[in-house]
Amino acid sequence: MTATKNPFYSNTLQELKILFNTHQLPKSGPELLYNWHHKKKNISPCLTDLAKISIEFVNNHFDFSLPHIDFVQESNDKTVKFLVQLKDGLKVEAVLIPFNGKYTICLSSQVGCAMNCSFCFTGTQGLKRNLGTDEIVGQFILAQRWLTEHRPQDDKILNIVFMGQGEPLHNFDAVKKACDIFLIRHGIGIAPHKITISTAGYLPGLERWKGEMPNINIAVSLHSVIKEKRDVLIPINQRYPIEDVVAFAEKIPQGRTRFVTYEYLLIKDFNDSIDDAHATGIFLKDKNAYISLIPFNPFPGSKYLRPSWDEVEKFKKILDDYQIPTIVRKTKGDEILAACGQLNTKLIKGP
Ligand code: SF4
């Protein structure tokens, strides 16, 4: 029986260093490997710079395989949605969102999701399983390789958001390790304040984030401060009420580079009234609150509707009056269902 190889893209630089040290291999190996595979995104083995003894060890020890891109959809505004097939045949999505000739990548952290938010297409799938670190890092590498091949003139991914399928804090260990890997200077080298983890308000995960992921931003899905409404939109509100989540966030010192923001999905005739806006303003006034208002994008079978721009503007104006910094986030990739909460692998059909 052949032993299972160690998935290379699951290893932090520190783990590679320990491994090389244990096997008495030249110390330069881990950084060379990070440079070759993470920074330069090479698929072929690193044969030039590594010592012969290290090449042999790497060949025998590591599995460099990645998930593969099953299907790509491009929208008119240059948003790209990837359907990524994992080794066991399950699929997740990753989305490239363009801004000023650069990109933000939206990554999935689970196949499906257990949180069952009523506005979310992914939630209708239920949770199938957590992604491994290599499957999270793999989404980035695949998207980067695709960009370099298809849009070499603007192939830079500058921001990472965990807003794809899954509740990232519900798969904390794999997401934390993926962030550790994204930050390594010899590899992908993203700055910590360019990474944002979106959460439905999963308090046990937020407690770990506070201590274990310094400088990584958090975006909390707020969507309503009225209990009856938030319980419907985000059922875990019944277990971890938004009051407790905000009270917890308030105790975290926010520096120049670490922010907690609140996302408010505006749904027509559900949470977009003048009364909803005042309730939100009263609740968040004098707190460390930044709000992103996101007009809901209906998906097939969705019971909710999108408000008009006029209604969105009215809502924002009331929050402005409470002096809460608020932006309206324009959704991208509408026609390929690439917006937040619209990802559902059941809907995409490959060629
Ligand atoms: S909104 Fe996020 S946390 Fe809620 S079901 Fe969808 S993927 Fe899960």
Give the topology.
Elements lengths: L5 E2 L5 H10 L6 H11 L12 H10 E2 L4 E7 L5 E6 L5 E9 L2 E5 L3 E3 L14 E4 L2 H18 L6 E6 L9 H12 L11 E5 L3 H10 L4 E5 L5 H7 L8 H9 L9 E7 L7 H11 L6 E5 L13 H13 L4 E3 L23
Parallel strand pairs: 1-2, 6-9, 9-10, 10-11, 11-12, 12-13, 13-14
Antiparallel strand pairs: 3-4, 4-5, 5-6, 7-8
Helix pairs in contact: 1-2, 4-5, 9-10
Bound molecules: iron/sulfur cluster.
CATH topology of the largest domain: TIM Barrel
Q: Reading side by side through the largest sheet, how are the strands ordered?
A: 3-4-5-6-9-10-11-12-13-14
Could you tell me the radius of gyration in angstroms?
Answer: 21 Å
Give the distinct bound molecules. iron/sulfur cluster
Global morphology: elongated
CATH class category name of the largest domain: Alpha Beta
The domain count comes to: 2
CATH-derived architecture of the largest domain: Alpha-Beta Barrel
**Termini, distance in Å?**
37 Å
Counting DSSP H or I runs of 4 or more residues, the number of helices is 10
**Secondary-structure class:** alpha/beta
Mean pLDDT across all residues, rounded? Answer: 90
Which homologous superfamily in CATH is the superfamily of the largest domain?
Aldolase class I
The proportion of residues forming helix, as a percent range, comes to 25-40%
